[in-house]
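DEPOSITED CHAIN:
***
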Amino acid sequence: MFLDPYFTRDGEQIIISAAQGSAFAKQIAGDFNPIHDPDNRRFCVPGDLLFSLALNRYGLSRSMAVHFAGMVDADQPVVFPDSETAEQQAIEVRDQRDKMIMHIDHSGETLHNPALLESFTREYVKFSGQNFPYILVPLLREHNVMFNPKRPFVIYERMSFELNTIDLAEPHLELADRTLTVNGRRGDTQFLFRVLDGDKEVGRGAKTLIVSGLQPYDEEQMQVVVTNFNAAKAAYQEG
């Protein structure tokens, strides 16, 4: 499985180190959010990695909704239910203290073809990783708010999609719309996306991020953040 380098199995538990989580974020998602840097004291495992592991364990259903109940620290054991339990409509992924960290609702036909699961997973994660700066910065600018550039905090809260069919050949995702709801110093950002198979639309979905510590938008400060992001990305790719 292409995800094998990004986790370690310990009996019934999955363990993701800071290095593994960071490598997934950068190599598969193109995500250079500082919260996924291995030396960041607030490091958390990418939500897209947890969802990718669930998707490849349980399959792709026509209807899926994922809610992240808490962040996962580096080296924190995670327990995915066995496949028989997952046949139920709700799947709860928990840590070793039995605290829920991810809830998945799924229904309808389910795809288990490994090659197509990998294709869909890669396409979803690639789309998801484009959040910053390509989608989020213009949206923040429109609403005249931004996160604290000295302590950016943008986290993945939930995602859902509905597919018309799981008979897919070349799935990919594209942005359909985006919204931002500001409530004091918090912003709820929603990215609406279309699921395509070739040129045909086969589904729609939405991803929600929480942006904390909002303050008035400052173009100069934001451009410093974008420049640093691009520099970190270029340095990693030149590696």
